[in-house]
Amino acid sequence: MFTVGRKDILRFVLFLFLVLLLVWYVLGRAVGPGKGMEFGTKTPATDAVPAKNLATTEKTPGTKSETGFLQRDFYIETRLERERTRGQQIELLKELTKSSQADAAVKKEAFTRLLQLGEDMGKEIEMENLIRARGFEDALVFLGSSSATVLIKAADLNKSEVAKIADIVARVSGLRLENISILPKSR
């Protein structure tokens, strides 16, 4: 018989607290102050909004530019849009797999696509994190079936930086170097 002692419960609570603290820290760094988004906001800005009109408009994430306008962060906005689109795709594929009207071949294809989509999402996140770990401010990776496009938050990239990024993407995705496009995008 397995018994749970007071020390086991305390260890579990401490472990849970550390996990929650880690999640809070990671989310705070990804969308926190100085990253173009403020805590408590749910959607990115869609257009520049005059800073003086913020009291009458919905709270919009972004950074204040020298002109007094709120600038949206391309990387955060694009990442959120990608997640929304993927969520819609996942819902549609789940509906197809559960549909009583779809035949077995359609259900099998939907399930296969669902698994591939999940795998691709994991690879994109892994590549983006590895690229940021190499010292780049931000990155977006769009993984296709036979190619990948990488946007790097930088004014320009030298050959050494491109090689580092290409190595990460090729290693994680399994794609050949000629099927990987790397583009700098500073804003």
Question: How many angstroms does the end-to-end distance come to?
Answer: 60 Å
What characterizes the major β-sheet? 3 strands, antiparallel
Across the major sheet, the strand order is 1-3-2
**Helical segment tally?**
4
Q: Note the beta-strand portion.
A: 5-15%
What does this structure look like?
- This protein is mainly alpha-helical.
- Helices cover 51% and strands 12% of the residues.
- It has helices at residues 6-31, 74-98, 104-133, 159-173, and strands at residues 49-50, 63-64, 69-71, 139-143, 148-152, 180-184.
- The protein has a three-stranded antiparallel sheet with strand order 1-3-2, with no helix packed on it. A three-stranded mixed sheet has the order 4-5-6, with helices on both faces.
- Helix 2 (74-98) runs antiparallel to helix 3 and helix 3 runs antiparallel to helix 4.
- The protein is extended, with a radius of gyration of 21 Å.
Write the layout of secondary structure elements.
Elements: H1 6-31, E1 49-50, E2 63-64, E3 69-71, H2 74-98, H3 104-133, E4 139-143, E5 148-152, H4 159-173, E6 180-184
Parallel strand pairs: 5-6
Antiparallel strand pairs: 1-3, 2-3, 4-5
